[in-house]
Amino acid sequence: VKRSRPEVVTEEIEILLSERAARTGEPPINYMMEKALGNPDLISLAAGFVDYATLPVKEVSQVVTEILSDPEAGRAALQYGTTQGLESLRKKVLKRLIDADGVGRGAAGYDTAHTLVTTGSQQLLYLLSEVLLDAGDIAILEHPSYWVFMGALRTSGVRCVTVPLDEQGMRADLLEEKLAALERSGDLPRLKLIYTMSYYQNPTGTLISDERRSELMKVMKAYSRKAPFYVIEDAAYRELRYHGKDIASLKSRDADGKMVCYLGTFSKPFSPGLKTGYGLLPESLVGPVLRFKGNHDFGSTNFAQHVIDRVMGTALFENHVQELCDAYRVKCDATVKALEKYMPAGVQIMHPLGGLYVWLTLPEGVETGPDSALFEAALQSGVLYVPGEFFYPVEGDIPAERNQMRLSFGVGSPERIREGIQRLSGAVRQVCGQ
Ligand SMILES: Cc1ncc(COP(=O)(O)O)c(C=O)c1O
């Protein structure tokens, strides 16, 4: 059999690699990590890590002691679990979501049988890409979008179509335009998924407003009646809410429960080290995803699930989320305040209401990429940011913007963040000649 040439070929890639492996590029995050590790004095505003000081050492120590001091509970936690995940945890996850969405028990699609626990929400994103996508299929994403999921999409060989955002989230009018164009070109049947981060998007921090959610659902439903596709609602940052009210998910607006996959995680609101996420899937996807997950690992770490199940069974979890939000609110506000104070005129700042990120747009023509004068000037000043172009697909239908950056206030103290922003603003002024 003659092998066709992979799309992305570098000299080191051997012919034995699969086409999927050959399409899989180096994640930009590796490059950023290298830069950060090389200079210990560097203030990193790049990593999406959570705050060290708020990690739940006390809570986890308490429940681990409880588990291991009861031999029966200890053995249950140290044994293999099931592919779908611990049932009592799935029930708690579902109940919490039912309460947050205000849908009432028995709402279409809100069912323990459709709920699964995964190794972070990242695993579920990847499993969905494997279950749904063949090379040449189409995925619609926000413009910009989450870089790690875009890596998985690249591996799948899909065509990415992107929809710009405004302060209220993905533009429903532009989504409709893109869907209409796909229909006109006869490509609508190749659309498999629309991916959206409805709460404090990574990287822009945007929360999709209540009104926009209704508009988006109307457009999505109308087109999914012409050719079915799934919507992946990634709610990784939902709990990290510092200002304003929680808004019911897109999932809760999916009247028959057949279109929206809801993905959540314990990484951001509790502990990334436990790497436990979850999803609520339309019934049609539960079997296919579980079969793939069975091939991957036949179950995520059982011990971590038992720990989280105990934490969720008491007030520990909600109290922790509360403490976390109080701590992040201070850092989020300090970040925005410092940016407003130190950045030169002409730098646009997106004010987030939650999440871990602040998104900046620099004046037209001021490039932020890894080879730009600004990136170098920032490194020289001892500060690291993530270039905005990393958040656009390599081969999207709209070119990547080159004058943006993502800053994270997750790790640093308010003082360190302020210092980092002062350094960064100095670099921006230097490059802009101000
Ligand atoms: C938008 C988004 N989705 C999903 C994830 C995956 O997180 P985890 O696998 O730890 O749940 C992240 C992590 O940064 C993220 O930013």
Question: Would you spell out the secondary-structure blueprint of this structure?
Answer:
Elements: H1 19-23, H2 28-38, E1 43-44, H3 57-68, H4 71-78, H5 87-101, E2 115-118, H6 120-132, E3 138-143, H7 147-156, E4 159-166, E5 169-170, H8 172-184, E6 191-196, H9 210-226, E7 230-234, E8 260-265, E9 277-280, H10 283-296, H11 302-312, H12 316-342, E10 348-349, E11 357-361, H13 373-380, E12 383-384, E13 386-387, E14 404-408, H14 414-432
Parallel strand pairs: 1-12, 3-4, 3-6, 6-7, 7-8
Antiparallel strand pairs: 2-9, 4-5, 8-9, 10-11, 11-14, 13-14
Radius of gyration: 22 Å
**Structural class category:** alpha/beta
What is the percent of helical residues? 40-55%
Mean pLDDT over the residues: 94
**Backbone shape:** globular
H/I helix tally = 14
Distance between the termini: 61 Å
List all distinct small molecules, including ions and cofactors, that are bound in this structure. pyridoxal-5'-phosphate
Number of strands: 14
Sheet with the most strands: spatial strand order? 2-9-8-7-6-3-4-5
pLDDT < 50 runs, ≥5 residues: none
Name the beta content range: 5-15%
